[in-house]
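Recall the central idea of this unit: under ordinary conditions, the amino acid sequence of a chain determines the structure it adopts. In this exercise we apply that idea directly, starting from the sequence alone.
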Amino acid sequence: MKISYLFACWVAFSAPSLMAQAPATEESFPFVIPGLAAPPAGSVVDLSWLNDRPAGEHGFVRARDGHFVDGSGKRVRFLATNFTFGSCFPDHDTADKLAMRLASLGINCMRFHHIDNQAAPRGIWKAGTPKKNEFDPDQLDRLDYFIATLKRQGIYADINLHISRNYWEGEDFPDGLASNRERQEKLPNYGNAIDKINDQMIRMQRDYARALLTHVTEMPGGMLRVRLRLDSLEEAERWVLSLGTHATVIRPEKLRERLMRATEELWQRYGGPMVLHDA
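Accordingly, the structure predicted from this sequence is:
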């Protein structure tokens, strides 16, 4: 291992000098990697043709036989990357350029990460407020526009929900601790794990997700509605059951019926016979 490491270091430090000594030939040519400028359409380095546009054109992506498929049954392979913190909120002109450039690289999925960590301009929360519990309208507009322009270029959006907002930064907690500094020292980072059992934290997750995923933003040429979609009723069933009495299913009726059967089976297995009535 030591020999391999030393050899790798020698190659790394020697490469520039070796390249400098290499004689120029007529076959050499400059290869400049552009910033946000996408290559010309039809260029050999333009891979945007790999993406179906807009994203979701052939229906929702689902898992089937261990693979992702679209609504037509065609296999889908995701090549993805991340935007985090302030990079999730580019201005409209930059968002258009980024989406085209990313598509030209063959990228077809983008994860939005840590948008809940800070106030604007580094996060989604309104600056100057005592608590992180109000969206900044300009940041929300930028996020919506970015997701919409990515969709036009065939790029899916994976929006992470609760990641790194400490719950006590959003609301007061009757936990007996003297300060946020003490909470930071004694509680799990960002409330992880306890936010699965603490009623107030569960309600805050629900309120945040509802506000972010169901708002409607006016866009030139139409409306953009961001909504939560799950791959299947099986996934929805697991998700709702994990929330227990904190979840209420409004529709579809088919999901309500599945949950009734699943709950009855669990009770018969662990608690004895019972009869459930749809309320």
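The two ends are 66 Å apart (CA to CA).
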